[in-house]
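[Discussion] Sanity-checking designs against the backbone

I'm trying to build intuition for which residues belong where. Below is a structure token string of 641 positions. I'd appreciate it if someone posts a full sequence so I can compare it with mine line by line.
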């Protein structure tokens, strides 16, 4: 026997108590338990009781009570049985639902707004009743693949279907009353059925594999379009959408935005993560206020003041050295992080309360910004600044928005700083950094740089390079870069570079202590240079004399060739060629009593009657460019019959 839900138990107890009291008072006009509406889903029943109480209607799930509810919002409902009794209902929201059947909604004929979201069981809309008053339908994040149940619902003005499995939009073609349509995160590739929806004002197509926006060309009332992360390349079909105010086509393959040049109503344009290198088509869009062109590889924006109409701009991850096109703009939000900017002069007229992001640039002077703005400018890499003389105060030009000079931290105990002017008392390369943060305020700065103080001093002792070879230099030899003597003081780093005919070789083979002479060096001369480094000292470079022209080398045989197998007529012998200098080409010749055996030039040989008691051996000859040819004989064998 199934236990009743606690809410229904309480309701029945309340009914019993009321009945007893009514009988005691002689009142016979009471509700009976049989008047209760069957609501088997405990979550839905509890939700209904809560809503009835909050509206002051009561706690009984009677048809009369339920018919008074006009709005309901529930979470986690699986079964809608009984909900059709809510005949006055105009708004229903079922979030994180797990329903598969929408047929119980049949009685809710006044329903204007319906949300059923997050159900893994809802795959089709065949069970959706006609609901003649319905104008808004949200079916987000379900498992719907078939939209046939929506055909003919011309009263719909808002339809949200994001996060489903829809691959065919044909049933939507007749919904001419739609003004808002959300289709993101589905599986369709064609939007042809949308061409007839000429009243649509808001359209979301993101996260679908769409290439052709052509069907949108006639949507003359379209005011906002979102088509991020599709496969769109061509914006041409949008050129005539004069009502378009908000356009988002980021994360696509767009390289040309010339089609947007006539969209004079545009207020917001998002084209980030594309391949756009020319923003000039939007210079004349005087209504444009928000532009996001981040991550496009832009190297230039345009002439000074070309984008002065903007109030918000995103240009993250480009290669911009200048943003003069923003001069005069009253910007309230700026993000030009991860570029190559060295100054902020073009941003001098941003709004006093603006927020400015300038991470990962090369800026040291922020004084041209209003000192009331919020600035986040971490990771400014200034690289190596021009060298200066020791004991000479130098203004590094590091300034905050209020114009105050900033003294960096220097990795040298002999460096001092006052009012932004650094003095180096010792020569060499110095490393500096700045970090400013105020947790209670929206600003922060960090930067790094290096700067060389001169003149450098020279090493007091310098070694010599030993002779590279005491004999002729041959291919295959290993040359050493030995030093006689040492540097003083001791270098912190020593580099080696080997040269062939005066040209430095590339790669690790040419930068080690040893150098193995290569076949390509034949006839050429080799030398090595060794360079010592120490901060504050002039690099010390010494070079060996060149060798004589490299001569042919001798091939090495580390493991001798050997005949293996059973030395009996009719059996096959196999040659193990041994181990030779890498790159050597080997040639084989089988011999019988010192004479070549006709056709026997491979690594195997099948013994014949002629070989019985004869001396069988192999002559192995090695050849390689840059080396003398060399041959060896195997130890012979004498086959038996």
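Best answer:
Here's mine. Compare freely.
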């Amino acid at each position: 026997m199934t236990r009743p839900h606690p809410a229904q138990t309480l309701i029945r107890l309340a009914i019993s108590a009321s009945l007893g009291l009514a009988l005691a008072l002689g009142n016979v006009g009471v509700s009976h338990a049989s008047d209760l509406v069957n609501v088997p889903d405990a979550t839905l029943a509890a939700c209904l009781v809560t809503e009835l109480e909050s509206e002051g209607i009561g706690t009984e799930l009677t048809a009369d009570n339920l018919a008074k509810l006009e709005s309901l919002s529930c979470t986690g409902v699986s079964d809608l049985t009984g909900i059709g009794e809510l005949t006055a209902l105009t708004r229903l929201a079922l979030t994180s639902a797990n329903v598969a059947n929408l047929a119980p909604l049949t009685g809710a004929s006044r329903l204007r707004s319906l949300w059923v979201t997050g159900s893994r069981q809802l795959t089709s809309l065949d069970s959706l009743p006609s609901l003649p008053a319905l104008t808004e339908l949200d079916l987000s994040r379900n498992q719907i693949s078939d939209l046939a149940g929506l055909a003919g619902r011309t009263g719909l003005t808002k339809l949200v279907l994001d996060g489903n499995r829809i691959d065919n939009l044909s049933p939507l073609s007749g919904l001419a009353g739609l003004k808002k349509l959300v289709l993101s995160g589905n599986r369709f590739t064609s939007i042809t059925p949308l061409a007839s929806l000429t009243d649509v004002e808001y359209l979301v197509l993101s996260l679908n594999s769409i290439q052709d926006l052509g069907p949108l060309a006639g949507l003359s009332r379209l005011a906002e379009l979102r088509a991020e992360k599709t496969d769109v390349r061509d914006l041409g079909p949008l050129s005539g959408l004069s009502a378009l105010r908000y356009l988002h086509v980021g994360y696509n393959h767009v390289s040309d935005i010339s089609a947007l040049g006539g969209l004079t109503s545009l207020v917001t344009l998002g084209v980030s993560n594309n391949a756009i290198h020319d923003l000039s088509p939007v210079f004349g869009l005087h209504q444009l206020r928000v532009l996001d062109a981040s991550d496009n590889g832009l190297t230039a924006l345009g002439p000074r003041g070309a984008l002065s109409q903007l109030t918000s701009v995103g240009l993250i991850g480009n290669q911009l050295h200048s943003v003069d096109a923003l001069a005069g703009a009253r910007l309230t939000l700026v993000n030009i992080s991860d570029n190559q900017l060295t100054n902020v002069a073009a941003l001098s007229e941003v709004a006093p309360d603006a927020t400015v992001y300038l991470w990962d640039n090369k800026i040291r002077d922020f004084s041209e910004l209003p000192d009331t703005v919020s600035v986040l400018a971490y990771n400014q890499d200034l690289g190596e600044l021009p060298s200066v003389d020791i004991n000479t105060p130098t203004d590094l030009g590091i300034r905050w928005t209020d114009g105050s000079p900033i003294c960096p931290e220097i990795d040298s105990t002999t460096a001092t700083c006052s009012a932004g002017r650094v003095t180096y008392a010792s020569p060499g390369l110095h490393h500096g950094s700045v970090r400013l943060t105020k947790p209670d305020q929206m600003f922060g700065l960090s930067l790094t740089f290096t700067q060389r103080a001169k003149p450098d001093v020279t090493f007091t002792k310098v070694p010599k390079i030993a002779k590279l070879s005491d004999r002729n230099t041959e291919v295959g030899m290993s040359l050493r870069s030995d030093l006689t003597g040492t540097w003083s003081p001791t270098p912190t780093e020593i580099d080696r570079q080997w040269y062939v005919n005066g040209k430095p070789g590339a790669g690790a083979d040419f930068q080690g202590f040893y150098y193995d002479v290569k076949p390509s060096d034949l006839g050429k001369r080799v030398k090595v240079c060794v360079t010592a480094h120490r901060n504050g000292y002039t690099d010390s470079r010494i070079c060996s004399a060149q060798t004589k022209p490299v001569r042919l080398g001798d091939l090495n045989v580390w493991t001798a060739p050997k005949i293996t197998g059973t030395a009996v007529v009719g059996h096959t012998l196999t040659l193990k060629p041994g181990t030779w200098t890498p790159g050597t080409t080997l040639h084989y010749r089988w011999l019988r009593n010192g004479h070549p055996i006709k056709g026997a030039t491979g690594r195997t040989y099948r013994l014949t009657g002629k070989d019985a008691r004869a001396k069988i051996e192999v002559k192995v000859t090695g050849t390689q460019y840059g080396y003398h040819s060399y041959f060896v004989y195997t130890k012979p064998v004498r086959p038996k019959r």
